[in-house]
Amino acid sequence: MPHTNRRVFLKQYREGMPSPEDFGIEDSEITDVPAGQVVVKVDKLSMDAWIRTTLTPGSFHETAGLGATIRALGVGQVVESASDALAVGEWVYGLLSAQTHALLPAAGLTKLDLSNSLQPRDFVGPLGVTTGLTAWVGLIAVAEVQAGDLVLVSGAAGAVGSMVVQLAKARGARVIGIAGGPDKCRYLIETLGADVAIDYKNADVAAEVARAAPAGINVFFDNVGGEILDIALENLAPAGGRVAICGAISQYSDMDNVRGPAKYLRLAERNASMKGFVVSHHAARFPEAKAEIAALMRDGKITLPEHLVEGIDHFAEALLLLFAGGHTGNMLVQP
Ligand SMILES: NC(=O)c1ccc[n+]([C@@H]2O[C@H](COP(=O)([O-])OP(=O)(O)OC[C@H]3O[C@@H](n4cnc5c(N)ncnc54)[C@H](OP(=O)(O)O)[C@@H]3O)[C@@H](O)[C@H]2O)c1
């Protein structure tokens, strides 16, 4: 049975922020499914900051070729199968990419375990590798958060940040979240339960962090980098602070000129550590992470609002919106 696939591909590279005209849209027919492969109807794509970095040459995440479908992680349902490993109707997670139908080797896909009332969308949400699991790995495996810690989180109203705030609270920490604008700050306090919210677009962040953390911060979970990282280093606790470098979204548009931390000597002066991580390197701990997050979900202690963009034609707009801070919580595209 042929499947019409609509895909979004890269037309040209550009320095700085991409523009909608850098992307093309094309329809084609999937008529043949080779042995070992399946056709997946893509249900939801996770809009992640790493996708942006693939659009320029020299990307850590492997640069997209011109004409290639833009890569993205997502969930979908098998609609045709030439593999014994996956049957029609099964739900999978993987690199489905910016398209309506993906023809992929079954071996590269993860079958979703939808027991205990879990929904496919949870696997690009609280249980998503690039959302909830990234938050868990950075906060718990890397920063080793403890009850009573004061945790500072940048990009706190986004997908990873929202999960960090809630996981830190669930582990008995106090949380200061940094996000852009009064609405996001209200969301941090009222929806996520953060103790303090700082609006970096309208407040003196250095003064606000110093005021909220007179004894210093124990953990900084950084999604943003740049000036905010320096402010966090300046406000580390006198000893034993941990900085987890998750990402640096403020720097992704000019990767050749990334602003490094000027205040890195605070690490030595305060016996602190700063450690980066790639979530996939901690896959051995995913079962532990999933169990903790799923239990919190069952107890109603995790909420992750979705910003759903409908239609694969709007994929590029959604990606650009991610960098403009135009969403709260988890941005997804539903092809
Ligand atoms: N290490 C890993 O393995 C790993 C895995 C997944 C994700 N990540 C990283 O996690 C971070 C969050 O990713 P996400 O997918 O959850 O995105 P997200 O937080 O849902 O969205 C990005 C948010 O970043 C903020 N932002 C954008 N430009 C900014 C700037 N110049 N300065 C300050 N804030 C800015 C915006 O919020 P405001 O409105 O508040 O500005 C925007 O909503 C990214 O840095 C990403 O690279 C790392």
Secondary-structure blueprint:
Elements: E1 3-10, E2 23-30, E3 37-46, H1 49-53, E4 74-81, E5 91-94, E6 101-105, E7 110-111, H2 132-142, E8 150-153, H3 159-170, E9 174-179, H4 182-190, E10 196-199, H5 205-212, E11 219-222, H6 227-234, E12 242-245, H7 265-269, E13 273-276, H8 286-298, E14 306-310, H9 315-324, E15 330-334
Parallel strand pairs: 8-9, 8-11, 9-10, 11-12, 12-13, 14-15
Antiparallel strand pairs: 1-2, 3-4, 3-6, 3-15, 4-5, 5-7
Helix pairs in contact: 2-3, 2-8
The protein binds NADP nicotinamide-adenine-dinucleotide phosphate.
Compact overview of the structure:
It contains nine helices and 15 strands. It is of the alpha/beta class.
Write out key terms for the chains shown.
335 residues; alpha/beta; Rossmann fold; 2 domains; 7-stranded mixed β-sheet; 6-stranded parallel β-sheet; 15 strands; 24% helix; globular; binds NADP nicotinamide-adenine-dinucleotide phosphate
* Full CATH superfamily name of the largest domain: Medium-chain alcohol dehydrogenases, catalytic domain
Rg over CA atoms, rounded to whole Å, is 20 Å
Q: Gap between N and C termini, in Å?
A: 20 Å
* Cα shape: globular
> What is bound: which ligands?
NADP nicotinamide-adenine-dinucleotide phosphate
CATH hierarchy class name of the largest domain:
Alpha Beta
Here the CATH topology of the largest domain equals Quinone Oxidoreductase, Chain A, domain 1
What is the level-2 CATH architecture name of the largest domain? Alpha-Beta Complex
- Total tally of structural domains: 2
What characterizes the major β-sheet? Answer: 7 strands, mixed
Beta-strand proportion? 15-25%
**Percent in helix:** 10-25%
Q: Helix count, per DSSP?
A: 9
Order of helices and strands: EEEHEEEEHEHEHEHEHEHEHEHE
Indicate the mean pLDDT. Answer: 96
Total count of strands: 15
